[in-house]
Design goal:
Largest sheet: none
Shape: globular
Number of helices: 4
Strand content: under 5%
Oligomer: single chain
Distance between the termini: 15 Å
């Protein structure tokens, strides 16, 4: 499993832990559009998938400490 898949799974767990509206809550907290986060949750190989890059990881770490643990 590569680092992008680990990030995707950790983000999925974070969003799921927040319940209904989790994607919107995370997106607003990190200054991204909910559509961006939805696409970041696409599995590998799905068209339109976005990878979770270093800048996004930094902001997620700031707003949601330990999300990647």
């Amino acid at each position: 499993m590569d680092k992008y898949e680990k990030r995707r799974l950790a983000l999925r767990a974070l969003v799921d832990s927040l319940g209904k509206g989790g994607i919107s809550r995370v997106a607003n907290a990190i200054g991204k559009e909910p559509n961006y986060l939805s696409r970041a949750l696409y599995p590998a190989g799905r068209e339109g998938r976005k990878r979770i890059g270093e800048d996004t990881v930094d902001v997620l770490n700031e707003k949601f400490p330990n999300w990647l643990d």
